[in-house]
Amino acid sequence: QTSYDVHAVEAKWLPVWERLDPFRASDDAVVSGEREKRYALTMFPYPSGDLHMGHAEVFALHDVIARYWRFRGYEVLNPMGWDSFGLPAENAAIRNDEHPATYTYANIDTQFHSMKRYATSVDWSRRLHTSDPEYYRWTQWLFLKLREQGMAYRKNSPVNWCPRDQTVLANEQVLADGTCERCGAEVTKRELTQWFFRTTAYAQELYDCLDDLQDSWIGKVVNAQRSWIGRSEGAHVTFDVDGHDPITVFTTRPDTLFGTTFMVVAVDAKLAEELVTDEQRAEFETYRDEIRKASDIDRLATDRPKTGVFLGVHATNPLTGERIPVWATDYVLADYGTGAVMGVPGGDQRDWEFATTMDLPIVRTTEPPADWDGEAFNGEGPAINSPADGVTSALDINGLSVAEAKAATIAHLESIGHGEGTVNFRLRDWLLSRQRYWGAPIPVIHCPVDGEVPVPEDQLPVELPELRGADLKPKGTSPLGAAEEWVNVTCPTCGGPAKRDTDTMDTFVDSSWYFFRYLSPHDDTQAFDSALAEAWGPIDLYIGGDEHAVLHLLYARFFTKVLRDAGLITWDEPFAAYLSQGKVINNGRKMSKSLGNGVDLGAQLDEFGVDAVRLTLVFASPPEDNIDWADMSPAGSLRFLQRAWRLSGDVESAPGADPAAGDAALRKVTHRTVREAEQLVEAYRFNVVVARTMELVNATRKAIDSGPGGADPAVREAAEVVARLLSLVAPYTAEEMWERLGHEPSVASASWPEVDESLLVEDTVTCVVQVQGKVRATLEVSPDATDEQLTELALAEPNVQRAIDGAEVRRVIVRAPKLVNVVV
Ligand code: ANZ
User: Fold this and answer.
1) Which GO MF terms are attached to this record (predicted)?
2) Of 8, 328, 362, 703, which has the fewest beta carbons less than 10 angstroms from its beta carbon?
């Protein structure tokens, strides 16, 4: 037999694995401490369409480590489910005129069958869907838990609004160019009463814990989180304002307060509206309405011409007593810091341009270098102009460095009650309300007497009304509002008429805690079992795309910290290690409908079989690199798999034959391969594991055809190692080999090959010979060569002789077995 039938093999093994169920994770083994745990998690898919090449890649990579850990004796939890609420399903449902549930569950079914065929080592008994009432009951419970902890609240605020999806978006869902992450429409602003999670309460901790993740996460993901949280040290400075309450600003440069020649407030902040005088109001409102259309990104762009309106009022510089004008502008954001900025044209380029445009004074407070020919200077230099000529102040910081001047100014402001040192974060609270149908209803009742009333726990879940045939098209208010019978309820507190909250939760809420639910997905008494969380958590390796580097990972980290503070778990971070895979592209471009370069996973599987596709994806590159499918050869992968499989047919010794009697050279290759595979898997260099397996296949083939032959027990040993290594990526082929080698299924339950350390000793090492410190020769020597042997060999080398050139050898320094240095 020279090849096996790819599809017959798939049909053969699936029912066997179904029966053996080798990947079911045992809670008992872990809780009792009988076995060490590994929790291997890969991001669960959205059920839009069938699985695609990207899924195939991440599942294949993930399976290498999950199966490897199992081989090494860990109890491995490798669960899978669906992130099945959310806009994609809802939009598709509207397009196809069907209910989101119909679309969602049909796709889940399709994906489930594809995943089964794809044969990853999943414990399917833990399968979950976030759109099931059994799941979102606990999402709602957690929402109430967060509310109880003071971590969920409602407020009126300007929000990002997608005019096409007609829904509010979190900051994270607005792309850098100001468009909607999902549909590409230009995002605008709107005022709405919305639910928020208080992520800012954990800003410092979310930031600090990144230090511990630096090495076990991908660097760029840690950095993305850092800049998203955006920690800035500085001060709050309070300015008195004529006829109004004082205004506090946030500044990173309190030392520049002497150079503050004006104040600017965000044009769309309430503050601007409150400050503006009657004379200036008309001009202000025209300006504001125009700006509302611009995105934050545009507004902060440094190359944007500076615009603004004088509000008609003045503030007082707390250090100098000077009166400075207060302006409204668009380059100050309403929701960062306090929404007001002290204008320091000498130190901030945007302020410089604003001052020049509006003809406001410029005073430098840091001395630029002598050759400075720029405008605003925000580098290092001695403080100047405190006080400047004609200005009196109790504070003199002239000559101090920036850091010293900052500290002195903060101390002074604190002493006069006009400010304090503070830390500011760019991170905003998480806006979780969505005015859409396909999500978990927010479990709150609004009562005219009792206000916001949480739905009592025993009435959860608040199930989504079916709304069959209803118009789900986004209109700016939730479609749930139309379900009158559902909306109108009696207040749990007073029994009077009340209404349900009609917003649903952002899908990211569902995915912020799913890894807890996998621990006991069928438990109908609690969201998750704390004892199981203690036993299984945290996740040992999380694999997923870096499009989730900011949002999902941050939210999951936030949830974990809140749950810890609620006493439900003890660990601080959910993901001990995180790996993000590259993308599968085609012909150098991202796969897309418009380019017509999509590669259909199903067609690839039909043509080459699961194993060849998986092998191709793992072998292509290190996990984090992109894979260009156009450069790949799944046909080549299949040929390799057939070659590996043929080894199992050529083994002639019986199972259990003692390999010690076998060919030593082949045994060395085998054992070295096992040891390297261990190191490579642990370093996530899965592609190299495949390369080493290929080398071992070649060495084994050579031993069979032109070496000791198939009857040599070393050949059996090698083939059995090949089967186990292959099972990490090509489970069908591996199972087939294992069976042909005379073993019971499943190869996944076999034990990992034990390395014979004595076979790892290198045959020779390279010894460098120097004369007067210069390399003159290299020798291949035994690793146990003695000093005397090495000296003798070195001096006998013609090149060394030539370099010595008859001079007297005064000393030979030997560092056996790698170095000989001859001194003449
Ligand atoms: C005076 C000053 C002088 C500033 C100077 C900088 C340099 P990060 O580092 O991003 O936190 N700022 C404060 N609130 C703002 C808002 N809502 N919109 C736009 N800009 C705002 O930046 C903090 C600095 O950005 C603050 O320090 C403030 O300008 C500005 F030589 O205050 B600075």
Assistant:
1) aminoacyl-tRNA deacylase activity; ATP binding; leucine-tRNA ligase activity
2) 8
For residues 543 and 549, give the distance between their C-alpha atoms in angstroms, rounded to a whole number: 11
pLDDT at 265: 98
DSSP string spanning 558-624? HHHHHHHHTTS---S-SBS-EE----EEETTEE--TTTT----HHHHHHHH-HHHHHHHHHHSS-TT
Rounded distance between C-alpha atoms, residue 354 and residue 471, angstroms? 49
> Is the Cα torsion angle 599, 601, 607, 609 positive or negative in sign?
positive
Q: Ligand 1, residues 330, 336, 338, 425: which to mutate, most atoms within 8 A of Cβ?
A: 336
* Binding site members for ATP: 593
What's the CA-to-centroid distance between 331 and ligand 1, angstroms? 10
**Residue 593 contacts by C-beta under 8 Å, 6 or more apart in sequence?**
none
* The pLDDT of residue 187: 87
* Cβ–Cβ under 8 Å, residues 165 and 87: yes
The total of other beta-carbon atoms located within 10 Å of residue 332's CB is: 28
How close is the Cα of 379 to the center of ligand 1, in Å? 15
CA diameter of the chain: 111
Partners of 174 in beta bridges: 180
Q: Give Cα separations from 508 to 41, 101, 170 (angstroms).
A: 17, 18, 10
**d(C-alpha 219, C-alpha 733), whole Å:** 36
Q: What are the residue ranges of helices labelled H in 651-768?
A: 664-682, 686-706, 713-726, 731-740
Mean of the pLDDT values across residues 105-130?
97
**Amino acid sitting at position 402:** V
Q: Which residue's CA lies nearest to atom 12 of ligand 1?
A: 341
Confidence of residue 296 (pLDDT cuts 50, 70, 90): low
* Separation of alpha carbons 654 and 717, rounded Å: 11
Q: Across the strands, what pairs with 820?
A: 769, 814
pTM: 0.86
